[in-house]
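Data deposition worksheet. Section B asks for the primary sequence of the deposited chain exactly as it was used as input, without tags or linkers unless they were present during the calculation. Section C holds the resulting structure in token form. Section D is free text for depositor observations; keep each observation to a single sentence. Incomplete worksheets are returned to the depositor.
Section A, Depositor: J.P.
Section B:
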Amino acid sequence: MIKKELINQFGLVGKNIEYSFSREYFNSKFKSEKKVDYYYINYDIRSIDLFKEVITRKPIPLGLNVTTPYKKEVISYLDKLSKEAKAIQAVNTIVFDQNKKLIGYNTDYIGFEKSLLESIGKRPKKGIILGTGGASAAVKFVLDKMGCKFKFVSRNPKENQLAYDKVTKKYLDEIDLIVNTTPLGTYPNINNAPSIPYEYINSRHLLFDLIYNPSETRFLKEGRLRGAKTINGYKMLVYQAEESWKLWNH
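Section C:
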């Protein structure tokens, strides 16, 4: 039997995360690196109010990841944010410092940036971001950094955002990047896809979907069939996970 005090415990905070990437990835990593008594578990909570129970239970986690829908909501429970997390206003990695203070970081933007740059020959000039949730903020941060002009597309657009029915042929002809940050198309609802006019997509476009399961969403398939370059979210997840690991071991 494992002694409680020997457990090096990490975990993922989210909702409906039974099939999460992180748990399998980190537990496989711990096994391959022979890190005995290292464990990564899911903290599947129905409300952010239950976050306090996660950080006070025994053994106290040594580090946490945060996923949908709590990347923004968790901020009010933290003691400090990195400058990137503050700028993005979304947290996906939490470090417990020596004084047990909770420091929020965002490694999503690093994962997105690395995955995008290694997949394209030249930086995108103009694009659209589908969705306005926590993940979209990391994409915005990277595109701003790259000098790529873009608009958010939302079902309930605010000022300077587009409604889906405003994504016309004329608009698509002017852009080269489309990033899906919505959950549409995630397993098991694999026939869902953002409502854009796919018939106007062509080889000039790059479609990036943050979803990794399935590996080819309907969004990506529609793009591929029309000659567009497509990227799923798997490498982004691997890169953000490795950045989280570096922070926990800093």
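Section D:
The longest strand covers residues 8-14.
The domain at 109-235 is CATH 3.40.50.720 (Rossmann fold).
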